[in-house]
Amino acid sequence: MAITASQVNELRKLTGVGMMDCKKALVETDGDMQKAIELLRQKGQKMAAKRADRDANEGCVLAKSTGNFGAIIMVSCETDFVATNAGFVDFTNSIIDTAMAQHITTKEEVLNMDLNGAKVADAITDQIAKIGEKIELAHYEVIEAEKVYAYVHPGNRMASIVGLNKAGYDQVGHDIAMQVVAMRPVALDAESVPQEIKDQEFRVAVEKTKEELIGKAVDAALKKAGINPAHVDSEEHMASNMGKGWITEEQVNQARQIKEQVAAEKAAQLSEQQINQIANGRLNKYFQENTLMEQEYIMEATTSNRKRDPSGPRFCCINVLV
Questions:
Q1: Considering just the CA atoms, what is the radius of gyration of the chain in Å?
Q2: Which end of the chain, C or N, has fewer beta carbons within 10 A?
Q3: Would you say residue 302 lies in a domain?
Q4: Average pLDDT of the residues in 92-102
Q5: Burial class (CB in 10 A: 0-12, 13-18, 19+), 200
Q6: How many structural domains compose the chain?
Q7: CA-CA distance, 147 to 162, in Å (whole number)?
Q8: DSSP label of 100
């Protein structure tokens, strides 16, 4: 049967899929609108399967609150072009608005939630067919407190929700929500940092401390031998600096011997107590920089000149006792 332009337009309005794909679906289903919608959904499922191994490192992050209940959502995609598209932002808004209206608290519930007559999971599949990128509900978290504050940074790439245990601190709540987005704390305080993160940061601090102590010993030995450590810090630099006449082949061989011998001797002499003491100092510095209660409060100064974070979208939710 002949497919009319009005049928194609109607299907496009219902699905958001391109005109040619809508026409093909109507032709294949002999003009049956419901069958055409299902066919396009199946196409989206196939496309989703094909793009399952793609990285969805961009996305739209939104946060909202209704007094004592707040939610934050991240719908991810592959490109910044899609993430900033008004239709994609509207789609993310529709999910969080519907979830909050139903007081939904988990990501799994959101995926099974009805959105304009279809499950959110199916609606996401429809978006994949429409846009042609991997799209997924990456995160959905909520906070319930006496008063919840939400902040979304311009561009919808970073957002936060903050719960206070007392009402009447609106300016404080708003400023803390902005602080969280600007400084990205991993937890409220040192005690709230997950143990696996503490263990990982301590291991990193131990290895960094060992490298620095050994490096200082090697540099001191090289300087004592009359060799500039910067000229022999890598095989590439040694070859280059010999070509420039900055160091002789004899000095290069001597430097290799010093680096190997002194590094081994220093590693054998390292004090575990000293290493742990320095590593604990580094860990405390990590807490000072990465926990809300210990990091610098920046809201008193302007943040207008802060550079845009080059990494992917971020979000954070945190409860604060006033």
A1: 28
A2: N
A3: no
A4: 97
A5: exposed
A6: 3
A7: 8
A8: H
